[in-house]
Amino acid sequence: MRRSLLPLNALRVFDAAARSLSFTKAADELAVTPAAVGQQIRALEETLGVILFRRTARGLELTPEALRALPHLRSGFSAFEETVSALREGQGAARLSLGCARGAIRHWLLPRLTGWLEAHPEASVQIIALDGPVDFAQANFDLALSYGPAPDAEGVFGHKLADEMLVTVRAPNAASRALGWRTMEGPAVALPDAGQALDWAIAGLGEAHVPLTLAAHALAEGLVVECGEPVPTDDAYWLCAPAPQWKSAKVKALVQMLTE
User: Helix, strand, coil proportions of the chain in percent (round to 5)?
Assistant: First the structure.
């Protein structure tokens, strides 16, 4: 059943005026003019088809219809406040839901989460592996890390980690057998994702052709060495989320943690 649009702003004005029995005091509370309060009340009376206030020698007076309606209205506002509080609780800093390109979970995401998890022993973190572009219409993620072109879904904003390069790496003194994933043609061993290709290279099983962002830590630790020259690619790793979520303190803190 289709719900009618409620005049919520006018009802809020009515509640304020009913508490003070003064359009002037209601205007001060709501940071508007008394004329604006009067206009909202008249519009609400016209919409509802009832009179809410009468002027008497002693000032404003609520009509019987208004007196009967107020308890229900205030109960409704309390329910709204409880709903907003419940939604805010879902944005608690210790509750995270992250989507992550499958190959980047071990070599990029988990090392960055380690310090945060140590500082938040009460944390609840859910990580979902992504095999392609994230669909925020279907998944309730706080943030996602995708690999590929810039996110183009309506309303989704992406932050590129870096202009990406593909590098060929192998363990020191390892064999030259090629290990590949979806970005490499004709590898001797084809693996499901770049993370597994990098794991095999670290284990000394061959050379892996992977994004530099993914291999950077292993290179810095000397677990692998670079073979040949890096190759530019138009694909990249993107932190992405619907635009409104980027304004939340939770997502801002998460992005800062992941990009430090």
Answer: 45, 25, 30
